[in-house]
TrEMBL record:
It comes from the Bacteria. GO terms for molecular function: DNA binding; DNA-binding transcription factor activity. It comes from Trichococcus ilyis. This is Transcription regulator iclr n-terminal. Residues 13-74 form the HTH iclR-type domain. The lineage of its organism: Bacteria, Bacillati, Bacillota, Bacilli, Lactobacillales. Signal peptide: none annotated. Keywords: DNA-binding, Transcription, Transcription regulation. Residues 75-256 form the IclR-ED domain. GO terms for biological process: negative regulation of DNA-templated transcription. Gene3D superfamilies: 3.30.450.40, Winged helix-like DNA-binding domain superfamily/Winged helix DNA-binding domain (1.10.10.10).
Amino acid sequence: MVQKEESNPSTKVQSIDRALAILETLAEYPSLSLMELSEKVHLHKATTHRLVNSLMENGYIDRNPYTKQYRISLKMFHLGNKRVHNIDFLNVAKSMIRQLSDDTKQTVHLVVEDNEEVLYIDKYGESRGVRMQSKIGTKAPLYCTAVGKALLSTRQNASVREYWDSIVPEQKTGRTITTYEELISELDEIRRNGYAIDDEEFEEGIVCIAAAFSSAREVAAGAISISLPLSDMVDKDFYTGKILEYATKISHLLGHF
């Protein structure tokens, strides 16, 4: 139930702005008295009281019956949660990797983590002169792929140690990481840069640049990568810039800010 406001459109907009300011202020504190709230939003006590009552009637604010202080209700959470559940995760990410492939003219992958491996759920484009093992539905190790290392970099080192102790690293190429110390050193660099590089560690002649993306519910919802021939790494800055740009775009579209 919304209270009837004045007919002047500018007054209605002002009331909305003030109501939003009240909600945002209450969200910063466990609870506030009417006087405290009025001072923080710089409104007269009577105006604050009127807006607070309207927000209470609509379920956005509740009042502690003992302290008489106001607090934000969980209604905003429920509304935001509905938005999160309505996001089509796969379609959002797939749409973005198609754009990324068009921008870079290279092969782009979309992966998620599945039982301590990366699972390829989409692949788009074909890099010139590059033939890769990756296929939609196949899996690859975390420790020797760019997408896998990007996902590992979002974990605490203790979790990485547990992962490392649970696997038997395989030397895929002469450049494959085979010690925990090497892996941690590289993950530290990935955390600093925001992107990971597979420098012929999984397949010879192929370099991959990857970054993890987040959603409103997960710090590492998945990862994307650009795969390219070694000769194209002369344009490394271009590709690292693009992977960071698109990982950020996907995270924002999935509700992570």
